[in-house]
Amino acid sequence: MSHNFQLRSSALPLRFFPGGLGARFLCNEPKHLGSSNSVGVAVASPASRTLQRHQAKATAKEVGVQETAQGSAALGWAARDASGVLSPFDFSRRAQKDDDVTIKVLYCGICHTDLYTIKNEWGTAMYPVVPGHEILGVVTSAGSGVTKFKAGETVGVGYFLGSCRSCECCGNGYENYCSGMVLTSNGTDREHGGEVTQGGFSDVIVANQDYVVRVPDGLPLAGAAPLLCAGVTVYSPMMRFGLNAPGKHLGVVGLGGLGHVAVKFGKAFGMKVTVISTSPGKREEALERLGADEFLVSRDPEQMQAAFGTMDGILDTVSAWHPISPLFALMKPMGQMVFVGGPTKPLELPAYAIVPGGKGIAGNCVGGIGDCQAMLEFAGKHGITAEVEVIKMDYVNTALERLEKNDVRYRFVIDVAGSLGSTA
Questions:
Q1: Cβ(215)–Cβ(224) under 8 Å?
Q2: What is the DSSP-derived secondary structure letter of residue 179?
Q3: How far apart are CA 333 and CA 55, in angstroms?
Q4: Distance between CA 377 and CA 370 in Å, rounded?
Q5: pTM of the model
Q6: Using omega within 30 degrees of 0 as the cis cutoff, is the peptide bond preceding 410 cis?
Q7: What's the pLDDT tens digit per position in 319-356?
Q8: Measured distance CA(173)–CA(89) in Å, rounded
Q9: Beta strands 411-415 and 86-93: pairing type?
């Protein structure tokens, strides 16, 4: 019998993969080093002319959502086939129920899941697909049974907007692991007639109040949008596995959309944080800009040897194949490794890397609603946001091309309200 076993991430259900959630390639440097507050990128295109017509129509209405028994009018950008090209798309949101809120979308982050889904890389796309699950907006209307929110409040919707509510996972606050979890984009909403869900690359969304979170006052909205996915994905396992204690040593593999947020949370917890990367050029960014304590080049045997057995736990955020056995050697006995990326090729691990030190392996997919709310409150208290490049909707196809090349630092966020206007 072989002493190696494989972690076959590609065999897991789609819902357990919020799509890279950050650095897709550990070995490549970002080519575009824009400001974290870069805004207003616009490129003329035929789609932009169509967009202008929709904007003019929305402006002429001058009122709120036009509600019908079937739902409300919405404008999004959708992919129609595996090319993944997005273009304007008129559709209807479901009618608001008593326990629902209607939300005007202000900002929506772009995650690798969006890219994988619109290109049908997992074979699950139900076209047309409106992507987007890092949604920040404002409540415009609340149903008569809503007790948690009122019109005018700033809220968020993340990776999912429904679950079965009756299983053990839901009962324990782990709705993100419910077998009946309803994805915010490209999901099947059985509670509402089996309709396919459309995401936040749109001007309005309707959601049950129990799957909406409140955004703390003062938290910059564009930078907060990626926290609804990337933020909770690193925060929740840190809390679950005790990787939040002051003085503990945390390793973060990969300095992308997930990794850079993990560094910020680790430092806010009072931990020692080491970034582990194949790219020496990221050292200054990690240490000077993000505040990491140390930077470790994983391809340098001397550096790896010097860090042997020093870490209490490691968050591996990388979604490309990479050798993982050397990473376990960096941890102390009974250290915890948490995988939050989703490589499509199996990761091989010899038993001797974990058995002698009693080291643990875990995976994590986003977090429950309670985790997400707690994460936002912690982020608000410590001023944590993602480093983002804010774009207009008519730049989205270019942004997706750049994302596929890992050419973003560190997250694209769409100024939805500033691009589409809103019928909400």
A1: yes
A2: T
A3: 59
A4: 11
A5: 0.84
A6: yes
A7: 888 999 999 999 999 999 999 987 778 888 999 999 99
A8: 35
A9: unpaired
